[in-house]
Amino acid sequence: MKKSLMLYLFILAILMNVFTYMFYSREVKFGQERYDKTTKKLRDSISLVTTKLADADYFSLEHNENAQNYFDNSASGGKVILYEKLIPVVTEKLLDLNASPNGNPYTGQDKIGPNKFIINKVKILNHRWIIADYSNGEMWGEVLLKYFVADDESITFEVIQSWLYQK
Hints:
The structure is a single chain. The protein is an alpha+beta fold. Helix content is 45%, strand content 20%. The protein has helices at residues 2-56, 65-70, 83-96, and strands spanning 118-124, 129-135, 140-149, 155-164. The chain has a 4-stranded antiparallel beta sheet with strand order 1-2-3-4, covered by helices on one side. The longest helix is centred in the first third of the chain and has 55 residues, at 2-56.
C-alpha cells in the first residue's frame, strides 16, 4: 500500500510538472505575441502621426526650401536672413500689435463692443504669407496676411483677406 501511494504521488508530481511547464511555456509565447502585436500597432500609429504632421507642416516656412532661399541674397551681394531667426521675430512683431487700444490692426476687423480683436495664433506659410487666428473673446476669425522684410530688416504687414465666423 505504501509503495502504491508513493507511485501515485510520483505520477501526480510528474503530471503537475508537465502541466506547469506547458502553462509557463504557453504564457511566454502568448506574452511575446501580445508584445509583438502592441509594438506593431504602436509603430503604425507613430507612422500615421508622422505622416499627418508632415502633411500639416507642408505649408510652412520651416519646410519650404524655395521660400527659405528667397531670404538668401548673398549671390547678389545682399544679406542672408536666417529663416530660423526670422520666424520668431515676425511672429513677435505681429503679436506685439495686440497691445494697441483698438486691437491688432491686422485682424482686418474694427473693435466690436468693449473687447478688441487680438491675434492668438500665427503660422508663417512661406516667404510672403501668414495665416493667423484672432478673437475678441466672443467672436473668432482668421486672417491671411502678406508680410515684407525690407533691406533694413524692418517688417511690414498687409491684410489680404479676413474672415469673422458667426456666433
